[in-house]
Amino acid sequence: MQNTTRRTALVTGASSGIGRAVAADLVRRGYRVYGTSRRPEAVTEPVAGVEYLALDLTDEASIVACARAAGEVDVLVNNAGESQSGPLEELPVDALERLFRLNVFGAVRLTQLVLPGMRERRYGRVIMVGSMLASFPLAHRSSYVASKAAIKGFANALRREVSPYGIGVATVEPGSINTGISERRTQYLRDGSPYTDDYRTMLAALNANEASGIPAETVARTVLRAVEDVRPRPLYAVGSNAPLVFALRRLLPRSVILDIVARRHGLR
Asked: Which EC main class describes this enzyme (predicted)?
């Protein structure tokens, strides 16, 4: 395996939260790091050693330009995304489509663009930053749950395609994270919605869990482990008592697990 001082990493959504923490860890490990932001000039707390590139994951031309600017990428961390909530019945179609362009299609397209170089150099790492909600779905988060389940599905299938070329693919699923994401989540709830009470109950519990969640730096350490493992596992989960809840998921019927998740968020 090549020396990390000669490896290049590209981390999407590196201006804050998990992406920023991952970029900082990779710099400390000796990688050349590109971080992306929709507006690099507006990054208020840039990480020393990170070169910021413009990237709008909903725009094909922007994705292509970003991949071209980064050049030979050895490690891709698909982290950028949007958190969205609302009753499925009331989610606007354009909002749903935007979420999938950002959380799924943009990440997949960027992956497509860096894979040829990884394959030719016979080394690469592609890390999808997902969510434990993909494994433990929650009411009123259907669009977000589905987008994170989708990127995990892409990653799981891709592993077998590219492993003969020295490329490892993994998904990191964080639980509740204290990154201020509650303040940035897009929400859709109609005035007078019949779902109002349940939605507000769920949201209050969700926000409380995130306020007491693990820091972004803890997730970043897990991402770094996935990057540097000789044979990356398909899934790394961190936070929200991940070892225990995944063990229960293997032992209990799916309906029981869904009930437990709902009750943890005040739903019956």
From this structure: oxidoreductase
Distance CA 44, CA 37 (A): 11
Backbone angles phi, psi at 14, to 5 degrees: -95, 10
Is 170:224 a contact under the CB 8 Å cutoff? no
Domains of the chain: 4-264 (3.40.50.720)
Bridge partners (DSSP) of residue 173 are 237
The yes-or-no verdict on residue 2 having pLDDT over 70 is no
User: 0.85 cut: is pTM over it?
Assistant: yes
pLDDT of residue 179: 84
What amino acid positions are annotated as catalytic residues?
Answer: 144
What average pLDDT score do residues 112-134 get?
Answer: 98
